[in-house]
Design a protein that fits this description.
There is one protein chain. By secondary structure, the protein is of the alpha+beta class. It is 33% helix and 27% strand. It has helices spanning 5-16, 27-46, 57-64, 111-122, 138-147, and strands spanning 17-21, 69-76, 79-87, 94-102, 128-134, 151-156, 176-182. Strand 4 (94-102), helix 4 (111-122) and strand 5 (128-134) form a beta-alpha-beta unit. Helix 2 (27-46) crosses helix 3 (57-64).
Length: 188
């Protein structure tokens, strides 16, 4: 079977992507990265006038210190290019992607999709992946729906409020999407 050059290039990139567990002593730096990178989208959409972080330190801490959290730096070879925090529920295998960022200098190179595939491979028992993203984050919505196979399952807004207590508590909580990806049932 002859593989295309693009297929070979993707495989080579994926082989060079690795996850390194973030030590609790590194959570402050991880938190700053999340806040800085998430702020880029808000600034692009609303300018510098928002006056509020798109995600608060408290919300990030909920993800980082969750008992089910796995928090990683993402490396391409020896260069850190981003980070991810997932919550893994071993009982239900309904897992969530809580935080995921890639440094802007690595955007639009296909790394996001390769990283997501690597996350799926790292947690093969997952039945459903879930995440939320703000309504204005068109780049995220495009990535998760069109590149990673998620489906929008709910749009939370003033007419349809999210009653879960573990969801973001910022002004951007007013309108956001919940997305899900159902995985192939590996238990059969």
């Amino acid at each position: 079977m002859i593989r295309s050059d693009q297929s070979r290039n993707e495989e080579e990139k994926a082989m060079n992507i690795r996850f390194e567990t973030v030590d609790k002593s590194e959570f402050d730096a991880f938190r700053r990265d999340v806040m800085d990178i998430f702020a880029i989208a808000a600034t692009e959409e609303f300018g510098d006038a928002t006056g509020e972080d798109i995600i608060s330190e408290e919300d990030i801490n909920k993800s980082l210190f969750s008992p089910n959290a796995d928090v990683y730096h993402i490396y391409l070879d020896e260069i850190k290019i981003g980070g991810v925090s997932v919550s893994i529920d071993p009982a239900t295998q309904r897992n969530s992607l809580d935080l995921f960022y890639i440094y802007p200098s690595y955007h639009n190179r296909g790394y996001g999709q390769l990283i997501w595939k690597s996350i799926e491979e790292k947690y093969p028992q997952t039945r459903v992946w879930e995440l939320i993203t703000p309504y204005f984050e068109k780049r995220n919505i495009n990535f998760y729906v069109n590149k990673c196979g998620f489906h929008i399952t709910e749009f939370f807004n003033k007419h349809h409020k999210d009653t879960r207590s573990d969801i973001l508590d910022t002004e951007f909580r007013e309108e956001y999407f919940r997305l899900e990806k159902t995985m192939i049932d590996n238990t059969r």
